[in-house]
Each structure stands twice: as structure tokens, then as C-alpha cells.
Amino acid sequence: MAASETVLRPPLGSLFSSCHLPSFSLNFSPLLSFKPSSSRKRRGLRCTNTLARGDTFQSPDCVSKGKKLQSTRCRCQRNDIEEDIRSNLLPTDGLKSDLDEMPLPVNGNLSSNGSTQSAGTNSIEDEAWDLLRQSIVYYCGSPIGTIAANDPNSTSVLNYDQVFIRDFIPSGIAFLLKGEYDIVRNFILYTLQLQSWEKTMDCHSPGQGLMPASFKVKTVPLDGDDSMTEEVLDPDFGEAAIGRVAPVDSGLWWIILLRAYGKCTGDVSVQERVDVQTGIKMILKLCLADGFDMFPTLLVTDGSCMIDRRMGIHGHPLEIQALFYSALVCAREMLTPEDGSDDLIRALNNRLVALSFHIREYYWLDMKKINEIYRYQTEEYSYDAVNKFNIYPDQIPSWLVDFMPNRGGYLIGNLQPAHMDFRFFSLGNLWSIVSSLATNDQSHAILDFVEAKWAELVADMPFKICYPAMEGEEWRIITGSDPKNTPWSYHNGGSWPTLLWQLTVASIKMGRPEIAEKAVELAERRIAIDKWPEYYDTKRARFIGKQARLYQTWSIAGYLVAKLLLANPSAAKFLTSEEDSDLRNAFSCMISANPRRTRGRKKTQQPFIV
Ligand code: GLC
């Protein structure tokens, strides 16, 4: 239909050109012809221990082996990584880091005012550091990550003995802020190797750029030689995970950590490596591939992020969109221009603008917007519909009517045709602030909302993963009667101390660190006494979660990152992104062309009803 062509293509394209952004085409097929370098054909890594079993590890000797494929021993496979490890994993010497301009570390900790924080004065922090170090996982003698939980009394370990990509992010940042760079560098480079692993589930393979949810270092007998063992990195892409969900967030977090590593250490040689650049592009290729979508948001299945089991967040959940936006911004900063990358950069820029417009316009909720939705006309068949997604006002949940404060607002959890998920999801909102996916005003409004709803979102322990919990029939249908996700537990309204670090970055970015300080103070009252639980239960977060692990690493690391950043707020800039003028310009062009802004309700024409 000719009319729809004019609506679909020119508005975006013409806006960009009039705003002097690079012109773009939604068809960026050259990107899809991108070929990984030959080094990426490796299928994960093995590391042979040349000593007899039981002896102390001394000289690792890595071989590459295809998982489920015939083993291919190749001693020179790990050339670049191992070379880096040997030639100095701690790029502290001679590196110009942003940290150089900051106050000198005191006992390794950065202090904003130069005051000494002598060992022992903060026993909780000391304990946290000890625990974090105890959770370190080594491969070929080098630190490469931290296990999810180190609970000595837990009877069922499940996969908590693995290194989860998302869980490692606060650990990695804590180490970066402490000036211990090697573990982060190793993590980045080794997980990159896993990206190209052979992965299948019932004969189906997901996209090439997928990063695993987690991996484990296994010590196994060496084929053909019983007296020797080798270490194997064994990733899980979801093929073994409960529910078999692909972790969409892993690759996005990997890009975010890579950028933070470069910013913090000043060592951009890692992000400039050919294999790292290839890794970034593979992740982008997977995310930017053409599909059936009408929306610029990333379409994913339920459980593809921190909430990794069924919670009714399939579709376009905010958490994924915030991480997606953030990863695009970080990748744009790190991609080295080269022949053939123009299409990718163009596609990325276009997506950034379309994505921020979509989220800021359609996900935003405050009193004014609720009132607008309350008075929505429905069944508007037209190109300039105000109620584009055909939301029926009756969908506004009764809890929301009283819950929304007069001041403040937030981004809703999800948006689909005829469906708004009005729940508040913390990580998505906080990371929208951190990445500047939310506007400056929206970011302040989200923090206003957090302050106004402190009793519900924080109560006795920061921070509710989402609000409110689903109960009764809704819980039964949406979670599939999940006994772990009962109301006010785990993903269903449980409180997760790890979210402290994202809260801290967001509040520092907006110049309101006192919000994070208050939350940290509250956490300090219990968290160490309670043995660093994974999550807390009940409306007010009064109980340790019924199935929560103790000594959960990202609870420990999240607390440490919060403390380190509050002591040295300027370090938060390693994690935050500011909207640049190109994006701002394109965004304001789009917003002025939006019917919702240009068309007042009075002028509304009679909608076409089909
Ligand atoms: C749970 C969480 C997930 C986390 C994992 C390891 O499955 O839902 O987000 O990565 O535990 O801690």
C-alpha cells in the first residue's frame, strides 16, 4: 500500500538527513556478510596440566578442543591470550588511566578526600573483599572470574558454582576500581573465546555472536593419559540452564564491561584487538539483524536476562532495552573505523535514535501519562493515532492508581500491542539513567519516584527487583505456578542487594548520591550478619529469601562497588554515558514530528474504525 510506504520510510530517513545525521537505510546487509577471523573458529579452550593428578598446578599448556567434536590439540591456539597473560596481565605500568587523575588509592581503595581508610575500620568491607577474593576462579593459573555463590552449607549447588557473565560485572568493576585489572582482562578475553563455541539444542544452533550465560572450569583426565589432567572451560548458553533460555544480556554486559575496562585502565589495546572488535561486531550483528519487528526494541523470550525464569517479561522488557541501548553506545565509542564498517555504524546510530525515542515516548509513565491513558480513545486506525498500541484504559491496574506519586515517574516494564506491563522493574529503570536512555528530566523523575516509594522499593533491604508482586491466579498463569517465584520472593518482588551498585551509579550520575548512601547504610545493618544473601523475601524484605544462596558473590561485589563509588564518585563515569549532540539533535527532530506532541486531543479527528 503506497500510503504505508510513505509512513514507514520517509519520516525517519528525512528526519535524519534534515538533522544532519548520517543518512541510513534500514537494509544493512553488508553487515551480515561480515566474516569472523579464522582465529574465531576455536571452540573454547582446554588447558593441560602437565603434572600428575594431585600435584600442584605449575605450567599450564592449553589445547583447543571442540565441544562434542573430535578434540583438536593445538598448542599455539591460545597464542594471543596466553601471550598477553605472560607478557603482563596487569597493564598498570606506563598506562595512562583516568584513575591517574584521581586521588591515590589508600590501601588499594580510592578515597575521594584523601582520608585514610585504615584496614579494620570497616570490617564489613574487609569481610566483603575477603569473600570476593575467595570466590575467584582460576584457569591455567590465571584469575578469570568469580563463582556465583560460595555457600559452604548449601546442599544443592545447581549452577551457582559457575562464573555467570552478568554476575561477574559488579565483581569486575570492584576489581577495576581497586586497580586489579588482570582478572577483568582475562574474563573479557576468555569469554570472547567462548562466543564462537559450538552450541546446539536439539539440533538447533542459536546465532554466532551469543555469549554464554555462564561457564565453569572443569578439571578432567587428559584423553589417553590417565596420569594427567587438563582444565576445560565449559560454557552454558542456555542449553543446560533451567528453562533453556538464551541469555540475551550476556553479550550486552560484556560490551559494557569492555568499555569500562578501557576507561578505567586507560588500556585501549584490548578493545582495539582484531578479535575483540570482531566479537563486538558479532554481538551487534545478532542484535541488529532484520526481523519481523515494527518496533526498534529488541524482541526476546521470557527469562533472557537477570530475571531468568518465567515472569511474564517476554517481548520487549525494559531491562534488555536499557542494556541494548547502553551496549550500542559503548560499542559506538569502541569500534575502530575500517572498510566495511560504515553500514554497521549507520545501523547502530539509527537504532540508537529510534530506540531512545520509542522508550522515552511510549514506556514513560507518570501521573500525567496515566491520566492520558485513562482517557485514551481506542481502535484508532490511522497513521497519526495517539493510542498507537491500542491500549484499553481498563488495563490500568488498581494498585497503580494510588501508587503513582504526584511527583516522579518511571519507565514501564514492557510494551506490546494492547498491553502495557505497568510493573516497575528496577534494573531497567536504573540502567536507563546510567546509559542516558532516559532523558535528564526522566532520570530525575525516576529517582524522585524511588525516594517517594522508598517504603515499597527499599523498606528493610535494597532493592526490590520489581514492584508489585504477582499474586493468585495471575501468579499461577504467568509464572506457571513457579514455587520459587511466589509473591514477594525471588524474581517476583524479592529484594536483591546486588542492585545497590546500579542504584549507586544512577544516583551519582544525577548528582544525588545521598539516595545510594541511605540504601548502603540500610544494607550494612544486616547484609554481613545475614551472610550476604542472594535475595530477601516479603513486602518489606524482612526475611532472607527462602531459597536464597548465602555468600552470593554479586551481593558482595554490588555492596563493594557501591562503597567504592560513594568514596570516589568521579569513578562512576567509567560506567555512565552522556547523550551526545548528534543523538540529541536527531531525537528532538523525531519528537517534534510525533503526532502525540503535535496533535492536541481537541484537534483529534474522527478515528477510522475497522
Ligand atoms: C539466578 C538469577 C540470575 C543469576 C544467577 C546466578 O538464576 O536469576 O540472574 O545470574 O542466579 O547468580
TrEMBL record:
Keywords: Carbohydrate metabolism, Glycosidase, Hydrolase. SUPFAM superfamilies: Six-hairpin glycosidases. It catalyses: Hydrolysis of terminal non-reducing beta-D-fructofuranoside residues in beta-D-fructofuranosides. It holds the Pfam family Glyco_hydro_100. Its EC number is 3.2.1.26. It comes from the Eukaryota. Invertase that cleaves sucrose into glucose and fructose. Belongs to the glycosyl hydrolase 100 family. This is Alkaline/neutral invertase. It comes from Brassica rapa subsp. trilocularis. The lineage of its organism: Eukaryota, Viridiplantae, Streptophyta, Embryophyta, Tracheophyta. The gene is A10p024680.1_BraROA.
